[in-house]
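haha ok so turns out i had the wrong file open the whole time. this is the CORRECT one, sorry everyone. sequence first:
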Amino acid sequence: MRRRSPTSQSFDDSMEKGQGKNHHPRVCLLASLSGLFWFLVLYFHFVILGGNHVHDSPNLDPLSLNKQSIIITPQSNPNPLNRATIRNAKVERDNNELVVKSKPLEKNVQPPPAVVRPVISDNSSRRDPESYSFMRALRTVENKSDPCGGRYIYVHDLPPRFNEDMLKECRTLSPWTNFCKFTANAGLGPQMENAEGVFSNTGWYATNQFAVDVIFGNRMKQYECLTNDSSLAAAIFVPFYAGFDIARYLWGYNVTTRDAASLDLVDWLQKRPEWNIMGGKDHFLVAGRITWDFRRLSDSDSDWGNKFLFLPAGRNMSMLVVESSPWNANDFGIPYPTYFHPAKDAEVFTWQDRMRKLERKWLFCFAGGPRPGDPKSIRGQIIDQCKESKSCKLLKCGQSRESKCHSPSSIMKMFQSSLFCLQPQGDSYTRRSAFDAMLAGCIPVFFHPASAYTQYTWHLPKNYSAYSVFISENDVRKKNISIEEMLNQIPPEKVKELREAVISMIPRLIYADPRSKLETLKDAFDVAVDAVINRVTRLRKDIIEDRKYDNYIEELSWKYSLLDEGQTELAAHEWDPFFEKPKDRSAESDNSSAEAAKNSWKNEQGQQ
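then structure:
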């Protein structure tokens, strides 16, 4: 039967010819019934069947659909658009295709599959911001009466095997010494006496340089904006003692043992509802060791460290370490702990005033030992130049426990009596000594940008010439310069400015006593937490705005850390030669860094 109009005149004419005028009422009835039949067919086709449309497809990622427009090809989808679709979309016809620019989706809708092809997204196709679980946290900043608005931290309640049990087994944290003394006083170590008058009478402790795990964790317990409601959190803290964990197993253990706690932690976190909000990108943790202890390149037992930072979950979280990688984006440098942990602002102010008034009889100084096994080290040349100068004070370090290099009072006394403190690379890029020197008001002299400038961008000014002196290690290695002559060329007024800048930075470079809270000053902990919150907030806003950085080059992450706010474009940099990886051996830099981590442990062994 052909589809014809039920009101067609030709239909009536044919009926009359075949049956005559006496059947006219019957013909009208049949015509009416036929019209009703076709009306019902069309209604069922366009309205009932048309209810199954592309927006409800279970095979499509809802997040993707909300981020971009959808093109539906009529041939591939036999169901026309229904009225509900038309109410919630702008429909256009272009080259025989229906272009549907959808609005945000309803939740819990499960439609059948449809063939889709993405086009460039626009504002009309973005996901509704209110559908994101973290919107409540972002909105807390709008409450001006809430001093914690935008600053709340949620802390995971980890099983004790990830933290407290390690402290109970503190004798296992170092293969060479009883580490328990360093976990005392909330991680600050034993209190030091001030027999020589080098320190203040209070706030000074024999703190281990790798104790940040427990210091930071205890400081977090005193954070004024903790919340038990994770939906309010600007960031989520994971109190895993990652540094203590790996310290137990670095020597004489296979990779299975070294990786066990990290894998266990990831498994625990991924089962938590908080993890699913951003896949862990709003999570952060602290490891008081250098990054190379967590970047094992293979599963060979002879390779160094564990692979925590190479795990997919580890790459999503932000790890705060005392030395970060210039070529990776998931770790961030925070200061080594010094010996000074004030409980009050007044203790900081008193110390700063004292450092300003000191007479400094030495132009420059160096505390450290040579590295004869490292052909790239410039320590030997620095020691030689210091020995030859009448303006340099040298504290030569060795493996002997009697060395004054291992005496906090001897080190701090030398730093306090010097204008400049030389800070070449240690066994790795960084040294605790740099922070001890700045605490003493001594202007640091760096020889590699990764020793400070690209490391501690949260805590140090980006304008490095405002507080330090940079001398390329290449010039020292080639014996092209005299350190003494270069430092003597700096005008006295400039020296005074540099020293004042260093002294003014002291609060943000130290960790306050975890058992108390500074009244107005922000210490290294506060600066780091603020930076993490800012980072997570930017990530969340990027998600809402559907902002992507497709051209981001992770291997150049050290460059991005130097960019000003809002900048995204990279250019050639004077420090490029310091961070170039050999083209023929792409892993050489990582391997040498792992070797440096090994050497660091060997030298630590001699210091215990």
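The longest helix spans residues 24-48.
again sry for the mixup
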